[in-house]
Amino acid sequence: xxxxxxxxxxxxxxxxxxxxxxxxxxxxxxxxxxxxxxxxxxxxxxxxxxxxxxxxxxxxxxxxxxxxxxxxxxxxxxxxxxxxxxxxxxxxxxxxxxxxxxxxxxxxxxxxxxxxxxxxxxxxxxxxxxxxxxxxxxxxxxxxxxxxxxxxxxxxxxxxxxxxxxxxxxxxxxxxxxxxxxxxxxxxxxxxxxxxxxxxxxxxxxxxx
Length: 209
What we know:
With 209 residues, the chain is of the alpha/beta class. The protein contains eleven helices and six strands. A six-stranded parallel beta sheet has the order 2-1-3-4-5-6, sandwiched between helices. Helix 3 (62-71) links the parallel strand 3 and strand 4. The radius of gyration is 19 Å and the shape is elongated.
């Protein structure tokens, strides 16, 4: 029996997947968590074979959870189940040591394939995510954030990574804070992100190398 820890802050996802795996032979959800901190507590209490986690969650997201597991020398394989298939996130997941990456757009049965694959020491990335990454590479935009942003936007992104507030950025660039906020919203839209938290993640990805 493969014991799965399910980490997601959307209750419908947790309930739906738990019900699905109850009907699957050989796989069982033995614990759930709403964020990375809760997942770490659960891992201290139960024997877990696979962590199945979303990326964007409150308190501690999935990427930071995986990094913390590696820091603690916990070798439990981690599979990301997420709506976010942007190349920058896939890159972060792989660099952090992910064993699998499955889009929530895929059929739920594909999770069974992913879980069984990583338990045997393999890796699994669904075709939807691979196609998105391939299209980016094929178009020549291997660093989409770097190549699609203007020089001004890259400067703002760098200052975001440096921890500066919108007003501090505005003062440094001799802009209004409203203009800085507009640039931020435009970057979120241009990069196909969900919100500011993802923009901060992209900033860290680009400049903390």
